[in-house]
Specification:
six-stranded mixed β-sheet; Pyruvate-ferredoxin Oxidoreductase, domain 3; alpha/beta
């Protein structure tokens, strides 16, 4: 099993945190993992992408270059890059709250999730990345939901305990939304 992922958004949307959660979860599940990151020179608001490779075997190269099995587009400004970065048979998870006119895709699946709107309903737009991560987990089986919940408790529990329940709820909400959509297909 080798999964190449790209988590993209504008600075402050939490794409790097999503990638970090995947990395820590992969380690907990005894998988090999590597992460690289690109971001604009702006201090805030510039586009950023975190690339993660998860495998059950040694990873020879940390490069994800237009060959992602799993891609996430949290913002309109990075959406085009994500479209070009998915391999045939892959999946692109698109924040339909921010990407107003998603393109028709051919050769891979696009899952539209209104994660920013959902996050606002949950209490703050800042948990949109966790809603999306839950959707990614449900739509790909990349990691177990319980593993990522454990990572959230460990990483946020000591520094920001008030955010643990919110982020776990956000994960579960995104997970349930995609599971429900998949069951209806």
């Amino acid at each position: 099993m080798l999964r190449k992922c790209m988590f993209s958004g504008s600075g402050g949307q939490g794409s790097a945190l999503m990638a970090k959660m995947v990395c820590l979860g992969a380690i907990k599940e005894n998988l090999k993992v590597v992460m690289t990151q690109t971001y604009g020179i702006e201090q805030r608001g510039g586009d950023s992408t975190a690339f993660v490779i998860v495998s059950d075997e040694a990873i020879g190269s940390p490069i994800v270059e237009n060959d992602a099995d799993i891609a996430v587009a949290l913002s309109q400004s990075i959406y085009g890059n994500c479209l070009e970065g998915v391999v045939p048979g892959g999946k692109l998870f698109t924040n339909s709250s921010m990407v107003e006119q998603p393109s028709e895709v051919d050769g891979f699946d696009q899952i539209l999730l209104p994660v920013s709107d959902t996050a606002v309903e949950l209490g703050t737009v800042r948990c949109a990345n966790m809603v999306m991560l839950g959707g990614v987990l449900a739509g790909t089986g990349l990691l177990k939901l319980e593993t990522v919940e454990e990572v959230v408790r460990e990483t946020m529990g000591s520094k920001k305990p008030q955010l643990v329940d919110l982020n776990i709820n956000a994960l579960r909400t995104g997970y349930d939304a995609v599971k429900k959509e998949m069951d209806n297909e």
